[in-house]
Amino acid sequence: MERNGYKKITSDAGTKKASFVSLLFFQWMNNVFKTGSERALQENDFLPLPEDNTSSFVITSLQAKWEKEQTKCKENVEKPRLWKSVISATPRHNYLLYGCAVAMGFSELIGALSLHHLGYRCEVMGIRIGSALKGLVYGKILLLSKTALFEFTTGHVIDLVSNDVQRLDEHTINFMLYGVFSFLQLIAAAFLMAYLIGWQSLPGLIFFCLLLPYFAVLSHVGAKLRHRTALVSDCRISLMNQALAGIRAIKTHTWEDEYRKKIKDAR
Predict the structure, then answer these.
(1) Which ranges does the record mark as transmembrane (predicted)?
(2) CA 135 centroid distance within chain
(3) Beta bridge partners of 2
(4) Mean pLDDT score of the chain, rounded to an integer?
(5) Phi, psi (5° rounding) for residue 2?
(6) Does residue 167 sit in the same domain as residue 230?
(7) 66 and 116 share a domain?
(8) Is the C-alpha dihedral spanning 24, 25, 26, 29 positive or negative?
(9) Which of 93, 202, 210, 250 has the largest count of CB atoms under 10 Å?
């Protein structure tokens, strides 16, 4: 039956038994979602309820269990319990429900183990990359000439190793992995929403994509601030190294107050 160019979901569609894949991925609701994205749903657009989900069936079943519980408790001079009747009226042969419960348990277990192993492997790989970069920095320092060494202060080298390389240890691998998977999830979510719901679901996703340049600008500003912080840290560390290296001269000439003021200003 068609109306205004749209095909309605007839009651014959509900009489067909859905396959296991359809039940697993809720494909039996695809037609309802597509129809709802095109126009307002009507009562006959929904699939008919199975017999065991109708109000008359569940009411009759619970009423029978409750009367049985009342009769049993009356004979034993006990107080009837409604919760026993509710449990008795609940279907016990829903194997798909039991299978889903078991699958959820295994899924949580596998997810927890995978998450811990992922974190461990990322940490190990980050440490390996950081160690390799630190080795390259120190190796480059040993190969520099005396003229080139005067262009770099000790504080700059220490800040480079302890600050920049440390960030690579902690965030590089996680960013690479989560960035790739997040991009794939975004594409899959956009396709499913456009297919099942329609273009009405895409403005939120588009707004989220428009926020990416905003976060990119914030990251760029943060990088500039970190660079300025690194310069200040370089100056502070160099000043501390000078003070420690020439502590005898400072004590001899009573320059403690002067260096204390310089270090305080640098901090």
Answers:
(1) 175-198, 204-223
(2) 34
(3) 7
(4) 76
(5) -120, 145
(6) no
(7) no
(8) negative
(9) 250
